[in-house]
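Thread: quick sanity check before group meeting

JM: Hey all, I'm pulling together slides for Thursday and realized we never actually wrote out the predicted structure for the chain we discussed last week. Dropping the sequence here so it's in one place. If anyone has concerns about the input, flag it before I start.
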Amino acid sequence: MDRSILGPAQFVETNVIGTFILLEAARNFWLDESGKDKSEVRFHHISTDEVFGSLEPDDPPFSEKTPYAPNSPYAASKAASDHLVRSYGHTYGLPFTITNCSNNYGPYQFPEKLIPLMISNALNGIPLPIYGDGKQIRDWLFVGDHCHAIREVINKGEPGETYIVGGNTQPTNITVVTTLCEILDECLPNSTYVPHESLIQYVTDRPGHDRRYAMDISKIKKDLSWSPRLSLSEGLMKTVEWYLDNQDWVEAIGKQGDYQDWLEKNYLARGGTK
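JM (edit): ok, ran it. Output follows.
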């Protein structure tokens, strides 16, 4: 999402044009060339909660009936791709399902994202940049639970249906970061940077930053018997342990010039320090 603010074109290219190309390939091969029975194929599209916009404090959580109201170039490009998928189902009879998922976290997540960035910075004694007041609310889901939900939707979901997927937990961003700091304090009690919470630094908020997301997972829970297996605290512990055990992977990405350039543009320009 952050990158779409600095360079929206690549998100339109990937999410809109890219989805169109995949839909055309599926339509041409599955429906036109092979003549496969529609019960044998499924186009599954993975989308995001950001297509629904932002919630006020007392608003009900997002559901499959929530109107679209994207607020960023990234969210708008994902909303467009959702509409394309539905249009191919209606116009060409392409069997599809869609999942709109909340924030993912876990192993192998690119280090620019909130959780791996906070872990990496904390390990190196670098300030932990927090947008605005840090009280933005997100729904967090461990990546393994998301993969499980996708499998359930593909195998048991009804064609033409959309399923909201979330972690059923909505902490503030600052709560997530302070929890990570506590876990690192526990895992690395002899670190020079204990308490890691002292590294937190508030920076100017990003443009158009949605205030609150929350997910109503009632439908997927009722229809497909899916719910997240890991609590947020369990998932964060597993995530921290993975990054501690895989520092070589993180460091290799950190040496990439374009990644460093992005960090400088996105955080230093907002008052963050290295």
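AS: nice. The mean pLDDT is 91. The chain is about 45% helix and 10% strand.
JM: adding both to the slides.
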